[in-house]
Amino acid sequence: MKKTPTRPDSVLETLKQRGYRMTPQRRAIIEEILGSDGHIAALGIAQKLARKMPGINASTVYRTLDLLEEIGVVSHSHLGSGAEYHLTGEHEHVHLVCSNCGRTESLSLDELKPFRRMLEKNHDFAPDFTHFAIAGLCSRCRD
Amino acid sequence: MKKTPTRPDSVLETLKQRGYRMTPQRRAIIEEILGSDGHIAALGIAQKLARKMPGINASTVYRTLDLLEEIGVVSHSHLGSGAEYHLTGEHEHVHLVCSNCGRTESLSLDELKPFRRMLEKNHDFAPDFTHFAIAGLCSRCRD
DNA sequence: GTATATGCAAAGGTTTTGCACAGCC
DNA sequence: GGCTGTGCAAAACCTTTGCATATAC
User: Fold this and answer.
1) Closest CA to B63 of B40, B82, B47, B46
2) Helix, strand or coil, per DSSP, at residue A82
3) Kind and range of the H or E element at A81?
4) Nearest nucleotide, CA A44 to C1'
5) Beta carbons within 10 angstroms of residue A2's beta carbon
6) Which residues of A70-108 are buried (b: 16+ CB within 10 A; e: fewer)?
7) pTM assigned to the model
């Protein structure tokens, strides 16, 4: 069951609907997030874009990310150091990051169902497991 | 089953054993962590100490925390924004932080046992749930 | 044409680093 | 006395903000 990949246009469509403008910078930032295979830091976007679009300013990236997050098309998560951005609704999995070697694995949300139910039942808490990673030791670093 | 509270002396003992020196600054930093009821940010320590021990420098705090973490007596976790330090072995619980109101609750490690077993069995991953918080919506903010 | 978005520059906050001096052992 | 630890100052790093200009609509 493959997902239709999100296209930059659909994000820009959302912007227009809300009365925001479609600028080359915004288009480029969105493309960078889409092309980053998951998640990317704000500064990472700025640096990658600097090559393709000289003159683009980091503050534009920060402001655009804030805006996109506000209208709900992107979200950020914490996978170790600092915020990483991704499209809301994509990237719906939990990160397991190894404290020793830094490698990351993915965990499907399905595997978390029993844990989620426990939190909802016992603590009346609706978890978003994608927001923070889970640290630990991976198979190679365990012993 | 109450735990014996860790005393600054025992930490300083560890320092001495490893050939490090016991200074008033280090003593004060350790006391601040002990007295912080759980966790505290590096800059928080520096600011609180500034009152009791004028002249103490933030860089000393950062360097001391690095050292203490290196020798294993303190650890840090990420509960929302930035690193918070606590004594290794104390504070052994998971934080649930509400993305909406910011309140935090605690979860015992016992409640996580089935989840831990799943990660170990299916992913050969040994999780440290205390390192990152779990984000979500608390009872008051759920609906 | 007008309101919004961008670039630039400056400032803000946190953390790191180099170096000389102080102080623990 | 020697070597480690600290203070100080500066820099590095990331992010935010104010303001004038550019540009999407």
Assistant:
1) B46
2) coil
3) none
4) D14
5) 4
6) eeebbbbbbbbeeebbbbbebbebbbbbbeeeeebbebe
7) 0.90
Q: What is the arithmetic mean of pLDDT over A95-114? A: 91
Out of B96, B125, B134, the one facing A96 most closely (by C-beta) is B125
Taking CA atoms, B81 is separated from B32, B92, B133, in Å, by 20, 19, 10
CA A125 – CA A128 distance, rounded (Å): 10
Distance of residue A40 Cα from the nearest chain B Cα, in angstroms: 18
* Average pLDDT value for chain A: 91
- Side chain identity at residue B45, one-letter code: I
A126 touches chain B (CB under 8 A): yes
Picking from B3, B72, B68, the residue whose alpha carbon sits closest to that of residue B29 is B68
Could you read off the pLDDT tens digit of each residue along chain B, which spans 143 residues? 555 667 767 888 899 999 999 999 999 999 999 998 779 999 999 999 999 999 999 999 999 999 999 999 999 999 988 899 999 987 788 999 999 888 899 998 899 999 999 999 999 999 999 999 999 999 999 87
pLDDT digits (tens, 9 = 90+) for A44-69: 999 999 999 999 999 999 999 999 99
A81 closest CA partner among A108, A126, A44: A44
Q: Write out which nucleotides of chain C lie closer than 7 A to a protein Cβ.
A: 4-10, 14-18, 23-25
Say if residues A139 and B125 touch (Cβ distance below 8 Å). Answer: yes
Contact A35, A44 (CB under 8 A): no
